[in-house]
């Protein structure tokens, strides 16, 4: 089974010039914790997470309405092709210490795959659990 078999093909994204406020509203409206950031040509140029919004905008007392997504996004994004195996996706999630991966074909974003998606598949449930364990073990406790 490949990533394309379990990814979410509905991709809500933002452009780097959009405000953090717009990104936060989109995350809330669609109940997602991350949005891929698309360049004008449609290619993936970053990802913005709810954590980015809090730590790189709100905590620094920047105004979300006046701060661009480009200022808070993560520019180096791990991604996976739709033809990758679910095991490869789980390994990448674990190695990169992330919970979601954009699925990219060529330069175009065609979906998103998450630890949750992998945990719902019998063949990758154990790998997803191990990836989550590794990710949460490295989270600094407040």
Topology:
Blueprint: H1 20-30, E1 34-38, E2 44-49, H2 50-58, H3 69-72, H4 86-96, E3 100-105, E4 108-114, H5 115-119, H6 125-137
Antiparallel strand pairs: 1-2, 3-4
CATH class: Alpha Beta
- Separate helix tally: 6
Mean pLDDT figure: 87
Which quaternary structure do these chains form? single chain
Q: Structural class of the helix and strand makeup?
A: alpha+beta
In one word, what is the shape?
globular
In CATH terms, what is the fold-level topology?
Answer: CBS-domain
- Residues in helix, %: 25-40%
Strand order of the largest sheet: 1-2
CATH architecture: Roll
- How many individual β-strands? 4
Q: Estimate the strand proportion.
A: 15-25%
Low-confidence stretches: none
Could you state the CATH homologous superfamily?
Answer: CBS-domain
Write a brief caption for the model.
With 142 residues, this protein is α+β, with helices and mostly antiparallel strands.
